[in-house]
Amino acid sequence: MSGAVLRLGTRGSQLALWQAEHVAALIREQQGAPPVELVRIRTEGDERTDVPLWQVGGRAFFTREIDRALLAGEIDLAVHSLKDLSTTLESGLELSAVLERADSRDALLSSVAGRLEELPPGARVGTSSLRRRAFLARARPDLTLLELRGNVPTRIERLAQGHYDAIVLAAAGLVRLGLVGHIRAYLPVQQFPPAVSQGAIGVVSRSGRGEVSRWLAALNHPATRLATCAERALLKRVEGGCQVPLGALGTLEADGLHLSACLCALDGSSAINVAGESALPPGAVAAEQSARALGERLGAELLARGAAGIIAQLRAATGGSPP
Fold it and tell me: Read out DSSP for 220-288?
């Protein structure tokens, strides 16, 4: 920490700033908490808006610069959309808190239809996600899928300008920015499984920083942490952090942790579904280990049932180097 000030690193988009301000407010509410200030950091994902996300090489293109600032001691905490955070953190960093998850679903915004089924044949649908492209192609192979970049308000503005007939965005971001009125329909998770950790906010700190981590304990939501731990373990087992058309959702029920996932071919022609559950032992550490084991087991099942072939086809279709 710099003196008595707790510095939170964040991207500069409206949604990222909302998330960082939310974390800052939760810290400030605690008795004896230090002053908190936000430090805006531009990332590679912010700079490279001229190419599709899947053409940007490497991993962590929305988090790398922030985490490097954290390792360098320029900030004390990093606030991320958890879905943007690599499944393998850089050495010296730890995921110190996972906040309660908001709505995990995708949402349809459209100027021509109220539901996905009502879009006319050939309608132009914008998305920057390979996952959304694949599941859209599976549900509506007649649609014209177009690339869509920019922050949330920019994407909505491009829809209003007529560049697209519809776009698909994460419902959580729209709710957080007060833009829920633009949503025409929520896409069901059975047909459009969300991105791993979609709707959750993660806070990263340097390992062993007890004086910082003490302020994060109250922010951590155990059920969300266990669910996203399982989802992230599954993703890591399947592809090690590269972007693939995979959706997964963990839920904590009375009988334990349930996890389902689907990997879809980019053209929607085939999909592999897996599901499983695990009773959770007492104790936070043991429960997290059990959640991670569930994710790894279902990830291995996806691979055994043909996921590697779909990923190979994806790499061939995208030039061999999706991030």
Answer: --HHHHHHHHHHHHHHHHHHTT---SEEEEEEEETTEEEEEEEEE-TTSS-EEEEEEEEPPPSSHHHHH
The domains of the chain are located at 1-100+200-220, 106-187, 221-323
Give the bridge partners for 60, in sequence order: none
Q: Fill in the DSSP letter of residue 84.
A: G
CATH code of the domain made up of 221-323: 3.30.160.40
Residue pLDDT, tens place only, 125-167: 999 899 999 999 999 999 999 999 899 999 999 999 999 999 9
Instruction: Read off the pTM.
Output: 0.91
Q: List the catalytic residues.
A: 84
Report d(CA 269, CA 271) in Å as an integer: 7
Q: Smallest Cα–Cα separation from 243: which of 65, 57, 102?
A: 57
CATH level 3 topology of 106-187: D-Maltodextrin-Binding Protein; domain 2 (3.40.190)
